[in-house]
## 1
Amino acid sequence: MMTTSPVRFAAQSAPETAPAADTDARWRVADIEALFALPFLDLMFRAQEVHRAHFKAGEVQRSTLLSIKTGGCSEDCGYCSQAARHHTGLERERLMPLEEVLEHARAARASGSSRFCMGAAWRSPKEKDLAAVIEMVREVKKLGLETCVTLGMLDGEQARRLAEAGLDYYNHNVDTAPDYYPEIVTTHTLQDRLDTIEKVRDAGINVCSGGIVGMGEGQAGRAGLIAQLANMTPPPESVPINKLIPFPGTPLAEGETLDPFDFVRTIAVARITMPESFVRLSAGREQMSDELQALCFMAGANAIFYGERLLTAGNADASDDMRLFARLGLVSI
Ligand code: SAM
Ligand code: DTB
Ligand code: SF4
């Protein structure tokens, strides 16, 4: 562990260290904005220092995603291709049968992924659906893969049943800064999301929670996103940082373009403020050059989604990823 101090920092000078884990010190949004405001090379250097103090440089965890229930969602998340009310041309599908899920899981294992993440376009799972997903978790675990699911909001009992089935991770993103959340979603609140995350945590399941960059939130919005993740006690074990994929037919389709360096900065600030978390370079890699991805790894990203698809969108090709790993000397874990 790095030496830490509970003393917080003035907004003008970027903080030197993270708050000590055993204090109630919190990251102030101003501290995080100060990190974002550092000259790029200084920020990258700091992120590398923190990364190398907590992880082996060059080791990257790979998870494969599968959409087990696509489209027709009741919620209105402005970025999402799967909201029933957005006309994205996506066909609504039923819950995928177990055997088909297992075929995908076996392929993911054969490709070298260590975790299999199943996503469903639900506000929250119904009893019959949860029972089916629990069966999927049990069977995927038997293949020797770690399991992750993202099913929308859960109550405490649902979280306990998933934990009992051996679920390793639950993904539930806070997505953006608290004050920007109502601009993006109106059918549930950020507090609903935080309640689910707390239930997942209480059930003993690892938390995967992160957000999306490039929804017009600005640097202050990105600082607000990172602050709420870093101030969770403990921070999520896995922090996906997604670059908005602008789907035609969604309200965010015509969003502003994001400076790629601001995406890299977000990764670096996540790394510095959540030294022990896996920071996952998530949606948007398909459109990123190898050089930009290399900067993200330099900034402290140490996990990716691996495989031809995310949920409904394409992902970087596995063969391109293998070449990139070889070119950069990255090792998958
Ligand atoms: N319904 C569940 C939920 O909302 O948690 C699970 C599926 S949802 C698609 C999972 C996450 O994918 C979202 O929280 C969001 O962060 C990310 N995501 C969805 N659409 C995206 C897009 N167009 N670009 C980037 N990330 C996206
Ligand atoms: C996360 O933060 N990103 C993944 C995973 N968690 C479930 C999903 C990205 C979805 C990108 C858009 C799509 O494929 O529909
Ligand atoms: Fe999409 Fe999940 Fe929101 Fe439904 S709850 S619209 S699947 S992000």
## 2
Amino acid sequence: MKKIVCDSPFLAAQAAADVFEEQIKAKSNSVLGLATGSTPIELYNELASRCSQGRFDFSQAQTFNLDEYYPMKADNAQSYRSFMNKHLFSKVNFANSRVLNGEVSDPHAECAKFDSEIEAVGGIDLQLLGIGHNGHIGFCEPSTSYTLDTYLVDLTDDTIEANSRFFGEGETQPNQALTMGVGTIFKARKILLLITGESKADITKKLFDGVLYTDVPACLLLLHPDVTVVLDKAAAKHL
Ligand code: GLP
């Protein structure tokens, strides 16, 4: 795993944007895997700003998002579709953007369809990831066994609690989600893991301990041949 430690979350977003810039300049029709959460917001701002400066564009690129709550209406303010529209898709033009559909009656069919769509476009070139405090990637929660393909997951109490900050009073927070499985994530040719903030320092240390903790899904990335971890100083505090 390649590690880049930056002085601030802003500089970490710049370093992550550099990875995207390099990717899109090398292959204009790249297939990009995208993530949600508070961590990538600054990166998405930076990508939008570089596009508006004309440094590059994403008009031939396609995107696939890691996950979506289930059940969840796409136009609900808390959906990951709404998140992506707000932070990126409204500012940057992509050839196609696919987010798992949290409204379907058959979630398993939706998951299978999603994986075959990724395969049909030749697989993901660059997958962006964040990390949960419990080590989850996408919504692949800590477990003794891991589902490889995109699947319907029961969220852990930790995750529901951590993400409750995004839900206002009276808004229902789902306790399930559709997420790329670790096998789908692993098929990405290149992975960019962005980690910022002191609250992630403990889980970050586990990633760099030189141990594959089986209850930390992000540790599975230790086995992938091309992973870049971009961190700010606060997240790298114990390294
Ligand atoms: C959610 C998403 C993850 C993300 C995580 C961390 O659970 N499913 O993809 O990495 O949140 O979010 P944050 O960046 O807000 O800490």
